[in-house]
Amino acid sequence: MRLNSLYRCLSPKIPTTHLNIRRFLSLGPEEYQRQSEIFISEQKRQRESLGRIEKIDIQYEGPPENCNFVMNKNISTPYDCAKHLGEKFKNGSVVALLNKNHLWHMHKPLPDSCILELLHYQIPNPHVVNKVFWRTCSFLLGAVVSDAFKENVEVHLHSFPSPSVKSGSFVYDVQLNLDNWDPTKTELKVLSLEFIKFCQKEQTIEYLDVDKNIALEIFKNNPHKTKQIPDIAAHNGDKITLFKVGPHIDISRGPMLPNTNHLGRVTVTNVIKLNTDIEGSPVYRFQGVALPKVINLNHFAYGLIEERGKILNAGRIPNDHGTLNEDNSFVAQVN
Amino acid sequence: MSLSSLIYRLTGTLRTVERAFLLVLNGKYPPDNFRLCLDQLQPQENWNNSQINSHKGILEQILGDGFLFAVPKHRRTIEKRLKRKYGDPEYHMKILLPNKKLQVCNVCGDDHEPKTLCPTCYKKVIEETRAMQDAIQNELKLEPVEQEVVVMYEGEKDSKPEEFWKGKRIVEMEKPRPQWFSDNLLQKTTQKGAETSDVKPSNLG
Amino acid sequence: MNQAEVTKLISQLKISPPTRLRKFRTPRGPEGRLDTLRKTVTALVKHERLELNRARALEARMYTERLISDAIRYGDCHKTTMEMADYWLIEKQLVHKLFKVLVPRFENYNIACTRIFYVPRNMTDPRYSKAVLELRGNPYPSLVRDTSSNKNLIHNILLEEAKKAYRTKKYAEIAAKIDAVESTVGLENPTTTESDGNK
């Protein structure tokens, strides 16, 4: 997973002092291991605390026919309902729509009886689906970036702004201890390849609601996330919504795609240094473009989109104070 | 040369005939060459005689009255046998296999092969098309066609401005427009569908 | 002789014709083949949408395209075109339709005027694959859902944004050019105004 070419390009610039603080970095297999253990134990605890299993009645509406499912309360997910409908629905559904107004992650347990609809990319009005797709791309970009660099590069994920397809690219803002890094074409290509490889693993994107303290424990080595968590928890009933893909865990309001194999073409288009007042190392904005696998586009048109994605994204630039904002991705997006 | 060979063959034949007669007289079965003619000589009851039966060979005891079919002379390899039985995956399989190359229609959720139309949606469309074609041909008959043909469903006369119908040959259908068939062909079918279905009955009433 | 001129002698079709024509098995030979195709072409011009065997549809498509493109190219006063129309359209009322309805309809098309779709195979007898051949702009319900015109699909949004970005870039370039021209003119002008003022 380590990028040799990136390392080769970057290593001369790296100050030697950073090599000494390697054990404090938020990356590396030990850190992933620690985060995953907390996540999995909490997931297990929540599952065991359910107690007696109750049944709920799910009314499914849509093709191939409207039907009713009797599912388990707080255990069954929309994904389980899709499994009953067939393989194509299982793999093709992007996000569930409950009671015609509430978007629901495919792997999030259903708490009550409801009307269920499954959305895909080619519905007549797909802007909610596009938003889910774009948000997941940002989230996955964070996962790729946090694992792409050599251990002597300090990587702290900051946040990503509210997903907006109209901005032309999806974004993740990351703090790197590199001064004036201007990525070459090869480096971007390597990052894109890492992204593609990551998506090809076909990992499910898991969902978990946790308490503030557990979230703080998970992100204790990330200074930015630690700062953000109390604010988010205050606006979200003392709960933090976490998403996990492979070993990577991140905070987001959601919902996300059910699996990484939904992504078709992916490119990391540009990395731009931002002017912010965040203390410490400079913050870089990683930008990329992607398309779902089901949407085919010829290479010329995709090239135009890639060109567009190189321009600095107009999304909100993070600063040291006020992490909570209207367009911040951590704020509730009811859509 | 020819004379000596003739004599030789004659003596040979005589010898075999003599041997056959001897066998028959001793109550044994004659050799193959003389069976037909000698079958008539055998009295019928002799066949059931156990004494005679005991003298028969094992093969005759098993077969009795039956006869042998032609049988394969050579063993057929396992590969060939399997290919005959199940077919060849490269060319044609004789057994039924699941079709894994299927797509799901986004409208009705039906499965169909890639690069083909969805069967349910297609059936719906082609039935409507045939109805429209019949209506158009009933209207046009054999006159020269000089204008674009527009199909007007029931209760649609007032829904469009006058200019729309101008310079066009109007063919009326004696039924309301199907819900899935948008009246504006440049727009998406799903968007307009719900609206038109609501509007039409009120226009009628 | 110049090769480029030769290619312009017949109208270029917007479909790719196959390297070899299909033989339809008829006892009447090549004429019989053309007779069957004439029937199909006539029916296509008449009904505008047909369900045919796949080979027949693909073959009839080429002749229809050629007929319509010739009609657009030469008009109804051209003798050869009229003869061809007379030959291909068995029902003569359709000759009027060809020149008065189809020519105006397809005049400004930069895509082929026919369209072909493959019909799902009948699984009880999957040997014969069928196809639907239609003229574009027909009054019938559409066979496929239009995905390209839905502006909300993700790739359409992205392409729209790319277009906008390109345009703003171009406008900026044009504005910069105009500014450059104006500044050069402006450099000349002040001298005149100054001289005027001095007078």
Automatic annotation (TrEMBL), chain A:
InterPro entries: Beta-grasp_dom_sf (IPR012675), Thr/Ala-tRNA-synth_IIc_edit (IPR018163). GO terms for biological process: translation. Keywords: Protein biosynthesis. It comes from the Eukaryota. Gene3D superfamilies: 3.10.20.30, Threonyl-trna Synthetase, Chain A, domain 2. This is 39S ribosomal protein L39, mitochondrial. It comes from Hypothenemus hampei (Coffee berry borer).
From TrEMBL, chain B:
The keyword Coiled coil does not apply. Residues 181-205 are annotated as: Disordered. Pfam families: Ribosomal_L32p. Its main location: mitochondrion. The keyword Ribonucleoprotein applies. Residues 181-194 have a biased composition (Polar residues). Component of the mitochondrial large ribosomal subunit (mt-LSU). The mitochondrial ribosome (mitoribosome) is a large ribonucleoprotein complex responsible for the synthesis of proteins inside mitochondria. Belongs to the bacterial ribosomal protein bL32 family. This is Large ribosomal subunit protein bL32m. It comes from Hypothenemus hampei (Coffee berry borer).
UniProtKB/TrEMBL annotation, chain C:
SUPFAM superfamilies: Prokaryotic ribosomal protein L17. InterPro entries: Ribosomal_bL17, Ribosomal_bL17_sf. GO terms for cellular component: ribonucleoprotein complex; ribosome. Keywords: Ribonucleoprotein, Ribosomal protein. The keyword Zinc does not apply. Belongs to the bacterial ribosomal protein bL17 family. This is Large ribosomal subunit protein bL17m.
